[in-house]
Write a structure and sequence with these properties.
The complex is a heterodimer of chains A (about 300) and B (about 400).
Chain A: H1 3-34, H2 41-58, H3 63-86, H4 94-116, E1 121-122, E2 132-135, E3 138-141, H5 142-164, H6 166-176, H7 178-183, H8 188-213, E4 216-217, H9 223-236, H10 241-261, H11 269-283, H12 292-296
Antiparallel strand pairs in A: 1-4, 2-3
Helix pairs in contact in A: 1-5, 1-8, 1-9, 1-10, 2-3, 2-4, 2-8, 2-9, 3-8, 5-6, 5-8, 6-8, 9-10, 9-11, 10-11
Chain B: H1 2-33, E1 40-47, H2 54-70, E2 73-74, E3 77-85, H3 90-102, E4 108-110, H4 115-128, E5 132-134, E6 149-151, H5 156-170, E7 176-181, H6 185-202, E8 208-214, H7 222-231, E9 235-237, H8 242-254, E10 261-263, H9 270-276, E11 284-287, H10 297-310, H11 316-335, H12 340-348, E12 353-355, E13 358-360, E14 372-378, E15 381-388
Parallel strand pairs in B: 1-3, 1-4, 4-5, 5-6, 7-8, 7-9, 9-10, 10-11
Antiparallel strand pairs in B: 2-3, 11-14, 12-13, 14-15
Helix pairs in contact in B: 2-11, 3-4, 5-6, 8-9, 11-12
The chains are: A mainly alpha (about 300), B alpha/beta (about 400).
């Protein structure tokens, strides 16, 4: 394999990995604060992409405004999801909420098939993202730079917000001890709503970026990325935001290199993610950056 | 706790008793109410209306519904279509066909777009002895060893050869790379026939420089394409679902691959053009039919009717759906009966049936022997290039 080909593979891997990382952040944030695996996150991701699609196709608004509004609207949907599917079950066994999450996921999938139709929609990619840069024989599309940049910006913004602001402090308090937090005068409902809003907002950003990179929208597009990004979050240490980003990059690069170096194993591409998950769970159940979990519990 | 458990068990026992009772009653119900001759003739349709092959399935169903509208009665009885979505999924395909046979009591079945989906239903229709006519499943294995499965399209050994000839003769390609969807019998089969024909044409085993794979539903093909790029083939053969293929071609162009990319009949979907945009410009593929070159009188009426009904030009899948329905109606007429066994024999004896996609004569396997056309994407539209006789 030539150096050029190797660099091309690395560029491809980083590009895919940053996308996984972006979606994994939303997953891990909700878990870190509520101890709830929001299995409907993949569907939120799908809704974000579809809302952006309809906004681009049917409103005269500029693309960047559509993207922001779509992400905000998806955030509101996430908020509603929490209201309808999770809040009524608060305080019940964790498995009940988990099953409710799976149910919500199926419900949204099938509603999407009914409303959006089964045929794929072509995501209208703004011209600014479709440029291609050739550096020393390695072709990199503009979106390959945009996605990691968006991922890192959101990562830093989120870390700052959680560590330095009052709401962030309330979230961290909530993640340690529900009741004590509420006794300290924290409005639990409000904080949880904000968490879901932000988590879904991030999911929508992931969905829109996904649409730009792979401009084919289908109602079930959230299923596989949803599972993979959950795995990415677990690899990095679920609940840990930086870990989710690390996990996303590991998964994306790993997948590309698996296909690149062992073409005969291509069929096992999705299985690779699960094998990696099992290995991590056996060797380091708290994930690569999840040491803090013991302290949290 | 213990008390709760007991209560649950009691409830469960009552529930089960009720359920079993209802089962018995409903069983009696169906037995007594089944009439000997049905008032309507039911024809089942199983096609992918959602999932990865949705566009192909929906276009086929449009053709079938148009045909049903045109000829809605046979032997003085109304023909009713029962349409089931197989969700582009092999398990769902088997379920859909079982449901059509067991619940809806259809006398014949049309479907499905997608060879794997058709093969998933093969054993079920064979056991139930319900004649089934495929519209566009092109893998040879769909009909081999199955006396109840027929089709109105050509098969992949022919299609693969046509594309290999095009690559070698028309494009002057000496080397080719393959990228196939390993979950689709269609894609793997077609690739194999292409490889065989291409090697024979070039006279060199080394003319296929790379064979890579992906799975249905994959969105990222950059790793495979980067490997292909490093081998520098003259042409890439990439048969697969229109959605995956459009993304694949787009990514190939982004990686700086400029050689022609060829595929099979599944690419003929407007979605292919919408997703691929300018990247799919120049992509060439084989198909069954083209609005640009009507082959029979039926083609002309079909094209006019289709345009009047749906406002756009008809494509190969709609035409094949139309033909499959008309062929079954023709068989019912010739059999003079709505009995599945008699319909089967009449379908098997089909000779020189004039369809919209050409004259259909079924061979001993139940396959149609027909010409193929090659289409090319020019200025964001499918354009007819040439017709190739078998």
């Amino acid at each position: 394999m030539s150096v050029q080909t190797l660099f091309q593979h690395l560029a491809n891997g980083i590009s895919l990995g940053s996308l996984y990382a972006l979606i994994a952040i939303g997953y891990t944030m909700v878990y870190g604060i509520l101890r709830l695996v929001n299995f409907a996150h993949g569907e939120i991701f799908m809704l974000g992409a579809y809302i952006a699609f309809y906004g681009m196709a049917y409103t005269p608004l500029p693309w960047w405004l559509v993207f922001i509004l779509a992400a905000l609207l998806t955030g509101v949907i996430g908020l509603l999801l929490e209201r309808l599917a999770y809040r009524p079950l608060r305080g019940k066994a964790r498995i009940t909420v988990l099953i409710s999450a799976i149910g919500a996921s199926f419900l949204i999938q099938n509603l999407a098939i009914l409303i959006f139709g089964g045929r794929p929609k072509a995501f209208p990619v703004p011209d600014i993202f479709s440029g291609i840069l050739v550096v020393g024989g390695v072709s990199i599309s503009t979106v390959t730079f945009v996605i990691p940049a968006v991922t890192l910006i959101l990562l830093f913004a989120l870390t700052y917000w959680i560590n330095k602001t009052k709401t962030g402090m309330a979230m961290r308090a909530l993640s340690k001890e529900y009741e004590a937090a509420s006794l300290m005068g924290i409005d639990i409902n409000k904080v949880i709503s904000i968490t879901f809003f932000v988590g879904s907002f991030l999911g929508a950003v992931g969905g829109i970026m996904w649409g730009i990179k792979y401009p084919q929208l289908i109602p079930l597009m959230g299923v596989i990325p949803g599972i993979k990004c959950f795995i990415a979050a677990v690899i990095g240490g679920i609940g840990n935001i930086k870990g989710a980003v690390l996990g996303g990059f590991i998964l994306g690069l790993g997948e590309i290199l698996l296909v690149a170096l062992f073409p005969s194993l291509t069929g096992f591409r999705d299985a690779f993610a699960f094998v990696l998950l099992i290995i991590i769970l056996l060797i380091k159940p708290t994930g690569l950056m999840g040491e803090k979990i013991a302290e949290k519990v | 706790m213990i008390r709760g458990d007991r209560m649950n068990k009691k409830h469960l026992a009552i529930l089960m008793t009720v359920a079993m009772g209802m089962g018995i009653f409903s069983a009696c119900g169906t037995k007594t109410s089944t009439p000997t001759e049905p008032e309507v003739i039911k024809i089942g349709v199983f096609e992918p209306l959602t999932g990865g092959s949705a566009a192909g399935g929906q276009m086929t169903v449009e053709g079938i519904e148009l045909a049903n509208k045109k000829v809605s009665e046979v032997l003085g009885k109304k023909v009713e279509l029962v349409i089931a979505d197989n969700k582009s999924d092999k398990v769902e395909a088997a379920n859909a066909v079982s449901r059509l046979i067991d619940n809806d009591k259809v006398v014949a079945i049309i479907g499905s777009y997608g060879s794997s989906l058709s093969m998933a239903a093969g054993d079920i229709v064979k056991t139930a002895k319900i004649p089934t006519v495929g519209c566009s499943p092109t893998n040879p294995l769909v009909t081999i060893g199955n006396d109840y499965y027929f089709r109105v399209c050509f098969i992949d050994p022919f299609q693969g050869t046509v594309m290999a000839n095009y690559a070698f003769g028309e494009l002057g390609a000496k080397t080719a790379a393959i990228i196939q969807d390993v979950q689709q019998d269609y894609s793997v089969g077609l690739s194999n026939y292409f490889v065989k024909a291409f090697k024979a044409l070039t006279g060199s085993e080394a003319s296929i420089v790379e064979t890579s794979s992906y799975n249905s539903g994959d969105q990222d093909f950059t790793a495979q394409l980067t490997n292909i790029k490093s081998k520098n083939p003259d042409v890439i053969f990439a048969p697969g679902n229109y959605g995956e293929s459009a993304l694949l071609i787009k990514q190939a162009r982004e990686l700086g691959i400029t050689v022609p990319i060829l595929g099979g009949d599944t690419w003929e979907a407007p979605d292919f053009l919408e997703i691929g945009k300018e990247a799919v410009e120049g992509a060439a593929f084989s198909s069954h039919f083209t609005a640009a070159a009507p082959v029979t009188d039926v083609s002309k009426t079909f094209l006019t009717d289709y345009k009047a009904e749906y406002g756009v030009d008809a494509n190969a899948f709609a035409a094949l759906g139309y033909d499959a329905y008309m062929l079954i109606i023709d068989a019912i007429k010739r059999a003079d009966s709505a009995d599945s066994a008699k319909i089967r024999d009449a379908i098997a004896a089909t000779k020189d049936f004039v369809g919209s996609t050409g004259n259909i004569t079924l061979d001993t396997n139940g396959d149609a022997v027909k010409s193929a056309v090659i289409n090319k994407v020019v200025n964001g539209k499918f354009e007819y290039f040439t017709t190739i006789e078998p």
